[in-house]
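Please go through this chain and its backbone structure tokens and walk me through the local backbone shapes. Keep your notes short.
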Amino acid sequence: MTLFGLDRFLADPQLRRPLAGKRVALLAHPASVTRDLTHSLDALAALPDIRLSAAFGPQHGLRGDKQDNMVESPDFLDSRHGIPIFSLYGEVRRPTDAMMQSFDVLLVDLQDLGCRIYTFITTLRYVLEAAAQHGKSVWVLDRPNPAGRPVEGLSLRPGWESFVGAGPMPMRHGLTMGELARWFIGTLKLDVDCQVIPMEGWQPDDAPGYGWPLGERSWVNPSPNAPNLSMARAYAGTVMLEGTTLSEGRGTTRPLELFGAPDIDARAIIREMQALAPAWLRGCTLREVWFEPTFHKHGGKLCNGVQFHVEQSDGYDHLAFKPWRLQALAFKALRRLQPDYPLWREFAYEYEFERLAIDLINGSPLLREWADDPAAAAADLEALALPDEQAWEAQRREFLLY
């Protein structure tokens, strides 16, 4: 049985003893729940030895109230517990001095998806930096990385840091939030009191979950468009669709597991992908689909598209499935079939107005330039990504807890 950091913290008074007499705050979101699906804020408030003084919500809010990117959450007073709830995705992204004065110890209980672009990682970095500045303590109640240990993608290049790029790691980083905290502290050389309450029994290389304890824990959306484990597994690739004019499935029941548009030929794209790099399609079945988003890109229009199915007849192969390469290949296939297609979306993305969203997402222009170059082959992208992936696997080793 897998025990998350929150489970252990709630069950063991000895773990909580150092917090006696201290003001405790919580950084959490909708998936911050116990095994019986009690929200961590409510579970902590029920402990007689914990003095809750405040709580923080990341993007989409503490309770998950906001649907899309760049839709902010306000601060408010929690009527149930009588404490202030501060938004770290509203007027500010970093906690203010006043917010930092509301607690002595911050508990971080965030379910990540294992992808660099997921903004909870950046929020973790920001609160660690603020805690170092203000002499506060941070305790990370660790949770699984549902995408498991595999590493994939280009590393973020210097100067490309943003709210969707907290540091020079590949798109699929293979770390838990507790391990990421250790990495941030080590690489940023932060002088901060940070404790990680590790999980017990997490086996990221074990079937069938490969990162997520299937059959033990219910899946709760950590953000509105993260509805299931298949999405979490595909997200390190499909998130790139946010930087394009293609629908990523927002406004459907399978967001970020498919892509499409009214003016593409999905069957031709699949054939082209199979011809260009068949090895990149391992661990996944591509299926032509038709869908009509109820909102967001191409809302109300019939789209032809491709869905990624990661569950095969013999299960999920987490080492074979390469979502970042798969989605990059789809871009390349579309470029070859329709060279003038207006693929890259020019719009403000996570409060960046000057640089293309696709480049912010990838942490450099390299992937876009590869997709747009008619002479560039799959081997050329492999030659760029593989050294980054190998370097990251070596670098992250000292920060692993499991």
In short: The longest helix spans residues 378-396. The CA atoms of residues 328 and 371 lie 7 Å apart. The chain has a mean pLDDT of 95. The chain is about 30% helix and 15% strand.
